[in-house]
Structures are given as C-alpha cells and as structure tokens.
C-alpha cells in the first residue's frame, strides 16, 4: 500500500528565506495547490490523507468539506504552522473535527519536528506521522529511530518512508530533484522491504516557485515545481497502479495494523 499525505498549511515557508508574503496569498497558494491535488486524485480515482492546520481550515472550511465529500481523510497538522504550544494538539483536533464533521485520529507535526508522544496520546490521537527516520543537516537526526511503524505511548508511529540500508528519504524534495526512474526503483525496493510507502507533499509545491525575488527558494526547492510537479506525481501514480500497488488513507492503514496485531509491539 502507498500512503499519500499532503500537509495543508498557511504557506509561510518564504519567511524562512527572508521574504514576506501576505496571509491572504499564503492561503491562496495553498488553496490552488490543494484544488490541483484534489483534481489529480479524482482523475486517478485514489484516496489520500490531508494533514491540515486548524488555522488553514478555519479560513477555508469549504476546502476541508470538499476533502471529506470526495472521500479523503482529514488529519491534524497542528493549529498554526509556525507556532506550537502543547495545548494546540487538542485544540487543532477539535477544530478540525468541528469543521470536517469527521473524527480526526492522525497528527503530523509541522516541519516533522520532535513532539512529546505522551502529549500526543493525551490529546486523543491514534497515530502520529512526525518522524523522518534519516539524517539531514540542520533538520533531522533520526538514525536511532525505527524505519517502519512502531508504537510509542500507545500511539502508532508511522515514519516517513526511507530506502532500506542507507535510509535515503523518499520525501517531497526527492520528488523535485531525482529522476523518476530512480524514485521508482527506490520505491519498489522500499515496498518490497516494508510492505508500504508513506509519502508526504505540500500543496504549495504545485505552484511555480522559481521567482527567487518573491519566494527566495534555492533551486533544489523550486526545481520541477508547479505543473511539472503535478505531472511527476501523476506519472508516479500511474506507474504504481500499473505495477499493481494500491493507495489508501493513513487511518485505514492503521486499522489494518490494529486488526492484524492483537497486542501493540514497542518496536517493529
């Protein structure tokens, strides 16, 4: 199974590169990208999980309701994308449930930063997908974490997928920069080893990000953005379905694990 997750947030990443962008434009760019994703998923007839900030959802409730109407899962990406307090865990869950009319069982921390698993459990989440089990300078140092799912404080942890052995991350930046042929080979090897893929992307990647004066992004972020990124994701989906791989929502994946395991292992 391949799990596609999209982190739907107020697009504040340009601030990291010294650029200013209004809140209205942050919402607009994320919304346009989300609509592109929804259209792509509709065309390919597959379902996915949207990890949304409460801040985005409160301002764009119609988009959240559209996700639900089209059969996708809504999960939490925190309350704000660039501000975190422990109480936001529960508050974002409640806000998203109120807007979506569905039960929110999953969480992903903004920027995949560390989060207290005891607090995740206390807030009522069933799964957490906030670990990238690799090493990237200044971002992740998680070689000590399991590559695949495990339980912590009774919460199912679903790390982002990395390749076997060297733990090369199969995340959004890889889909911008690597040849699709190489991505497919690594995806096949990881699926064979783990039995699933957990991939995550952002709606703003479906906007052309080459305007350095506006966004300030380096080439490895803006490469293959916009229509080119939509084409790449579509081509990857076509390849996967052609190989017989299935796509599913993260909550369904969690239910499968729960049903197959009568007790919760500490590590897997």
Keywords:
11 helices; globular; 268 residues; 5-stranded parallel sheet; 13% strand; 11 strands; alpha/beta
What is the ordering of alpha helices and beta strands? EHEHHEHEHEEEEEHHEHHHEH
Count, helices: 11
Report the principal-axis shape. globular
Integer-rounded radius of gyration: 17 Å
Mean pLDDT, to the nearest integer, reads: 95
Straight-line distance between termini: 17 Å
What ranges have pLDDT less than 50 throughout 5 or more consecutive residues?
263-268
The level of helicity is: 40-55%
Largest sheet: 5 strands, parallel
Total count of strands: 11
Strand content: 5-15%
The chain-level structural class is alpha/beta
Descriptive report:
By secondary structure, the chain is α/β, with parallel strands linked by helices. The chain contains 11 helices and 11 strands. The strands form 3 sheets. Strands 1, 2, 3, 10 and 11 form a 5-stranded parallel beta sheet that branches. Strand 1, helix 1 (23-44) and strand 2 form a beta-alpha-beta unit. The longest helix has 22 residues, at 23-44. The two termini are 17 Å apart. Residues 263-268 have low confidence and may be disordered.
Q: Can I get a quick summary?
A:
The protein is α/β, with parallel strands linked by helices and 268 residues long. It is 42% helix and 13% strand.
């Amino acid at each position: 199974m391949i799990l596609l997750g999209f982190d739907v947030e107020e697009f504040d990443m340009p601030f990291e590169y010294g650029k200013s962008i209004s809140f209205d434009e942050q919402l607009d760019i994320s919304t346009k990208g989300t609509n592109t994703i929804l259209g792509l998923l509709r065309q390919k007839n597959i379902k996915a999980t949207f990890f949304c900030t409460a801040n985005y959802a409160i301002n764009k409730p119609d988009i959240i309701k559209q996700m639900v109407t089209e059969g996708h899962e809504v999960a939490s990406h925190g309350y704000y994308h660039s501000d975190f307090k422990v109480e936001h865990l529960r508050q974002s869950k409640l806000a998203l449930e109120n807007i979506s009319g569905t039960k929110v069982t999953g969480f992903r921390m903004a920027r995949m930063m560390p989060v207290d698993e005891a607090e995740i459990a206390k807030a009522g989440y069933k799964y957490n997908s906030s670990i990238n089990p690799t090493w990237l300078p200044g971002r992740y140092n998680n070689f000590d974490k399991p590559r695949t799912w495990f339980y912590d404080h009774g919460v199912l942890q679903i790390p982002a997928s990395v390749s076997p052995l060297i733990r090369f991350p199969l995340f959004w930046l890889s889909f911008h920069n690597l040849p699709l042929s190489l991505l497919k080979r690594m995806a096949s090897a990881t699926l064979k080893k783990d039995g699933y893929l957990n991939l995550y992307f952002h709606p703003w990647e479906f906007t052309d990000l080459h305007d350095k004066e506006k966004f300030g992004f380096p080439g490895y972020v803006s490469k293959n953005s916009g229509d080119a990124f939509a084409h790449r994701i579509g081509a990857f989906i076509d390849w996967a379905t052609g190989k017989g791989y299935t796509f599913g929502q993260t909550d369904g994946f969690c239910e499968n694990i729960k049903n197959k395991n009568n007790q919760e292992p500490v590590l897997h």
